[in-house]
Task: inverse folding
């Protein structure tokens, strides 16, 4: 390797390492606080690590709130939502990307409008609708909307990705006699696999951490999701920072696992999208 | 010269199937978006305060916003400032990081996860965390500044530093999504095209502008639009960390809407605010879409 | 062709509009004695949740026909969001806590049962705790009383060789004495105090006095200086009186001139007084009596040797009361039963655990005068000996009513006052400038439009 090359590579690593450190600093701070006694957390000048590592902060956090119940509830909401999103948003995106139909421009701008829409605008009318259907204090308001397009954001994203695939592939498949659904399912979807995984991951993380939806629609504590439970926890433990940080770490671990697992498919998806000519 | 006959179906059939595929989102739009929006538009023409029956006001709420409202102007200024700063910072940061990660570096997976990690932390927890990190007297960041020989900053407590501070926090927590999307797009850039530039003697700069940038432009455009729009929605930070201060320096638009609607119960007023926001952002979106025709390159558009 | 989605839209429209019209008030009639289901709304930390569930359960034990569903809203701001959506869908609870800034506006909109007659009977409640509409109706009374005190770390005072803050009204410090002591307790990274040469104000390690920037401390001190926010009869703004301006300026000077206070901010020291004292970042913290719970726990678990002192005064001794009220909703279908529960919950003897753990003070006058009752309340290790004079007596004799209890436009005015005053706390402008030129022109029309 030439010297210039070596220098460039070193610079590259340096920048990445500094950037990664900056990203990790707050997270590190959160973890270190979660393992300390309260006195140590606010010691000044700040301590880098606990003088006595307090794993029982985690025990206290787990036992102060029914986290397992919240975990179950969160799964009940998240899994169907992610599935619904992947299916319906990719279908809808395909429709917009590959077909001409009257009003397509209008409806697509409605999709964009929906992305722009601040949730607060429609909060009350939507709530009224659900309460008339007697479905408040259930999980339905949090799940059902995602069977209808899985979020305008995702439809837009996937449409853009579909549009990066040359029409030649559709045409080639059609020559072979494939109908529209096969083209969608077997040809185009694999092309956008990294994007699909990204969409699935985003939806997962969004639902996992969403507390505003559960706040509005879930009344009974037995239905609370993790995010809602955590925000209650914050009210209860606002001055016990170490316990609070421990609880936040607990809530973050499943998404982290999901991300690590999902990452692998990312890589596989990359190989599949390589266009061989 | 004789091309194989492609069975392009009749226009009518194409339209029907197109609708079928797009139907979930169209239905969703009607039920969860358009109908409630009409409801909210109607509310904006009334003085509804949730507690008593509404009275028709016509456009009085809207007129008030521009004449007698004490917070509308400041809120707009503050929000636009944040939107511009945040979008630019997030966009540049994400693109640079994605480009760097796309190089063949060792441990790419690890780096990628690290950069995405902040996006996973629940925003409620990170708000509490950053409040402490930003504390002017005892927070970590000022200690770092002092350690580097710089002066302390007021961070969230200073009217002129509050928005840059929030942008830093937002880029930290929000760039992850944008980086992942850029990465996915970068990894879809055809290698042969890049190699072709190399063969012609081009360096990474040429590769970027000649091949990468056009190829990822739909996704770039997407990221830009989404970033702009999301920035307009900033709320939680005002709600949890700053209560709109100091001196309304972070009185973001959606927070103002929330306050008017849910704390002052002026639903009509809040609905009017929300429609003004919607119109502004729609106009912005239209402008962006027009502009995108100049530089966004679609490989497989439906025409 | 595409079906125009008009029918769907029209339906949704009708639904939305129909829901907007409120259901007629209900809930007349006597307490039935048959099975009754009540929804009780509240919020609070784990201690409050446990104690609330305990007293609700004991009520249900005594009244087997009543089933109470306790709705825990997590915090007062979450409650605010929730109660609006509940009102919009006509599913408000029967009774419960209510977000203080909106009590009067909701009350004047006829949402709450008029409790004036209800409170005519029984042991008298403290007047400062009554939410009264301008036409004299009581729409809620604070379930607990809270005043402010000076919390301090005895160890910090011992190390400096200084006498503790006084715990009796008769011995209270005036403002200059308070600032003087605070200066002696403020140290920068080099151990220097504000009056020493070479003091580095940008590198202070421990602060002598922490007075927060929200409305309770500054209105209290303004009253102490002879001013205030609104006159007691609700008719005059006192914010631009010289006494008020002077008081506000003095609080701001603690940080910017005397250098004894931590940086101002909307969320200063988010960790609270207990940790600030324990870590010795702060020597004296002026904060609410509700802190006794966490500070007491910090003593028991982490050894914080704390003390309680009375507030310093500017011209006269003064304190102020706050407390979340319990209201009864007019939309309730079981108003007589709700009132019975209200009676129970509002009686200090039924919420004794919350009084004894330090979170609450009683809402009835006799609990401040009757020795046996006082003993029930503070005769436990959680309450230090000086509590009797520093809190019980001081609350009885010197506590004033705050504007949120009787000024309906208060929260609207506060939207303007709070942000503008932040410039004063930061030392960017003087109190006189901000109050006279920025605040008064804007709040005067709001106040008069009442």
Result:
């Amino acid at each position: 390797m030439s010297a210039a090359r070596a220098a460039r590579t070193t610079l590259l690593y340096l920048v990445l390492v500094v950037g990664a450190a900056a990203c990790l600093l707050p997270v590190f701070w959160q973890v270190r606080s979660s393992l300390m006694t309260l006195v140590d957390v606010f010691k000044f000048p700040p301590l880098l690590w606990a003088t006595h590592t307090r794993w029982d902060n985690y025990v206290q956090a787990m036992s102060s709130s029914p986290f397992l119940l919240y975990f179950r509830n969160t799964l009940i909401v998240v899994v169907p939502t992610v599935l619904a999103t992947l299916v319906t948003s990719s279908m809808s995106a395909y429709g917009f990307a590959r077909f001409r139909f009257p009003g397509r421009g209008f409806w697509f701008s409605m999709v964009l409008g929906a992305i722009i829409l601040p949730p607060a605008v429609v909060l009350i009318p939507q709530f009224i609708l659900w309460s008339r259907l007697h479905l408040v204090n259930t999980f339905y308001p949090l799940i059902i909307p995602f069977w209808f397009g899985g979020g305008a954001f995702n439809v837009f994203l996937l449409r853009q990705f579909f549009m990066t695939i040359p029409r030649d592939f559709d045409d080639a498949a059609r020559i072979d006699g494939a109908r529209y659904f096969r083209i969608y399912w077997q040809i185009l979807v694999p092309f956008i696999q990294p994007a699909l995984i990204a969409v699935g991951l985003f939806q997962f993380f969004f639902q996992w951490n969403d507390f505003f939806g559960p706040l509005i629609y879930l009344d009974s504590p037995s239905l609370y999701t993790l995010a809602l439970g955590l925000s209650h926890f914050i009210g209860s433990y606002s001055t016990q920072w170490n316990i609070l940080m421990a609880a936040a770490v607990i809530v973050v671990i499943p998404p982290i696992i999901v991300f690590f697992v999902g990452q692998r498919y990312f890589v596989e998806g990359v190989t599949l999208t390589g266009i061989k000519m | 010269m004789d091309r194989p006959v492609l069975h392009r179906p009749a226009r009518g059939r194409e339209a029907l199937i197109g609708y079928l595929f797009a139907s979930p989102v169209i239905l969703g739009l009607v039920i969860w978006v358009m109908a409630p929006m009409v409801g909210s538009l109607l509310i904006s023409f009334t003085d509804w305060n949730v507690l008593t029956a509404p009275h028709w006001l016509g456009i009085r709420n809207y007129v008030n916003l521009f004449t007698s409202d004490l917070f509308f102007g400041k809120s707009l200024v503050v929000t636009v400032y944040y939107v511009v700063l945040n979008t630019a910072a997030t966009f540049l940061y994400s693109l640079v990081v994605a480009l760097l990660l796309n190089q063949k570096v060792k441990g790419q997976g690890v780096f990628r996860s690290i950069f995405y990690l902040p996006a996973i932390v629940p925003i409620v927890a990170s708000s509490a965390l950053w409040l402490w990190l930003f504390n002017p007297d005892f927070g970590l960041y000022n200690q770092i500044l002092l350690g580097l020989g710089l002066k302390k900053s007021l961070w969230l407590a200073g009217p002129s530093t509050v928005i840059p501070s929030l942008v830093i926090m937002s880029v930290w927590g929000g760039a992850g999504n944008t980086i992942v999307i850029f990465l996915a797009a970068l990894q879809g850039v055809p290698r042969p095209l890049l190699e072709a530039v190399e063969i012609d003697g081009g360096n990474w700069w040429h590769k970027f502008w000649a091949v990468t940038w056009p190829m990822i432009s739909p996704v770039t455009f997407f990221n830009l639009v989404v970033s702009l729009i999301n920035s307009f929605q900033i709320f939680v930070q005002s709600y949890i960390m700053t209560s709109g201060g100091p001196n309304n320096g972070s009185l973001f638009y959606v927070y103002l809407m929330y306050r008017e609607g849910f704390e002052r119960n002026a639903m009509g007023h809040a609905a009017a605010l929300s429609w003004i926001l919607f119109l502004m952002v729609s106009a912005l979106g239209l402008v962006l879409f027009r502009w995108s025709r100049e530089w966004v390159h679609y490989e497989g558009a439906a025409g | 062709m595409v079906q125009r989605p008009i029918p769907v839209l029209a339906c949704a429209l009708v639904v939305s509009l129909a829901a907007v019209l409120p259901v007629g008030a209900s809930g007349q009639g006597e307490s039935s004695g048959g099975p009754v289901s009540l929804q009780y709304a509240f919020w609070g930390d784990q201690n409050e949740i446990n104690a609330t569930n305990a007293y609700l359960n004991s009520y249900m034990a005594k009244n087997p026909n009543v089933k109470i569903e306790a709705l825990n809203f997590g915090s007062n701001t979450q409650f605010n969001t929730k109660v609006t959506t509940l009102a919009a869908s006509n599913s408000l609870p029967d009774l419960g806590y209510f977000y203080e800034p909106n009590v009067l506006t909701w009350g004047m909109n006829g949402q709450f049962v008029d409790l004036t007659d209800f409170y005519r009977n029984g042991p008298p409640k403290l007047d400062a705790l009554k939410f009264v509409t301008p036409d004299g109706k009581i729409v809620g009374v604070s379930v607990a009383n809270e005043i402010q005190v000076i919390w301090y770390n005895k160890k910090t005072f011992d190390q400096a060789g200084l006498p503790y803050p006084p715990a009796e009204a008769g011995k209270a410090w005036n403002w200059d004495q308070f600032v003087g002591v605070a200066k002696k307790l403020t140290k920068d990274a080099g151990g220097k105090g504000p009056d020493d040469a070479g003091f580095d104000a940008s590198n202070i390690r421990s602060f002598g006095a922490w007075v927060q920037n929200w409305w309770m401390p500054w209105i209290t001190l303004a009253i102490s200086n002879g001013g205030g926010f609104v006159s007691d009869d609700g008719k005059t703004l006192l914010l631009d009186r010289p006494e008020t301006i002077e008081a506000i300026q003095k609080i701001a000077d603690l940080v910017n001139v005397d250098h004894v206070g931590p940086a101002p901010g909307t969320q200063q020291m988010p960790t609270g007084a207990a940790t600030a004292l324990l870590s010795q970042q702060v020597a004296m913290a002026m904060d609410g009596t509700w802190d006794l719970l966490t500070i007491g726990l910090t003593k028991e678990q982490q050894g914080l040797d704390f003390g309680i002192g009375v507030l310093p005064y500017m011209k006269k001794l003064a304190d102020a009361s706050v407390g979340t009220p319990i209201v009864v909703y007019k939309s309730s279908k079981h108003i007589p039963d709700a009132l019975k529960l209200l009676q129970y919950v509002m009686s200090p003897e039924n919420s004794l655990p919350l009084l004894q753990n330090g979170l609450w003070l009683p809402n009835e006058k006799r609990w401040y005068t009757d020795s046996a009752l006082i003993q029930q309340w503070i005769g436990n290790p959680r309450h230090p000996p000086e509590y009797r004079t520093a809190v019980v007596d001081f609350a009885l004799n010197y506590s004033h009513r705050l504007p949120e209890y009787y000024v309906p436009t208060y929260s609207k005015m506060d939207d303007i006052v709070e942000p503008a005053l932040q410039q004063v706390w930061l030392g960017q402008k003087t109190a006189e400038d901000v109050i006279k030129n920025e605040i008064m022109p804007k709040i005067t029309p709001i106040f008069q439009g009442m």
In short: Chain A touches chain B through 107 residues (CB under 8 Å). The two ends of chain A are 30 Å apart (CA to CA). Residues 65-236 of chain A form a domain with the MetI-like fold fold (CATH 1.10.3720.10). Chain A has a mean pLDDT of 81.
